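User: Predict the structure for this protein chain, please.
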Amino acid sequence: MEYTITFPGGLRVDAQYNDVTLRTDQTVKGGGEGSAPTPFMSFLSSLGTCAGFYVLQFCRSRDLPTDGITLTQKMDVDPATHMVTRVAIDIHVPSGFPEKYHAALVRAADQCTVKKHLEAPPAVEVRTLAHA
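Assistant: Here is the predicted structure, written as structure tokens:
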């Protein structure tokens, strides 16, 4: 698995994987154009969207409607370090959603691949390589 990271201009930084491009930018306040999420926004939103994907798949596999289901993700941040210390994801279901599936939705969201990688993080190595 390999991403190619490029600099298309301004403070934008893109990641290309196969035929998909993930675009990032900085906020206007941060000196960018605000044309895309920041890399950190993308990172954080990957938790909620991944959990949402597992909720969606759970519902689809049981022919349960997803209309009215939303997830909210809130983060606690340490004011001294500005590091995220806790992420909470709430799954909101409409009043008619079967109670017997509530706990199963949580178990489905807990299968999120992004969450699992944060629980057992990979080693990250950064180096420079000269072009041949």
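The mean pLDDT is 97.
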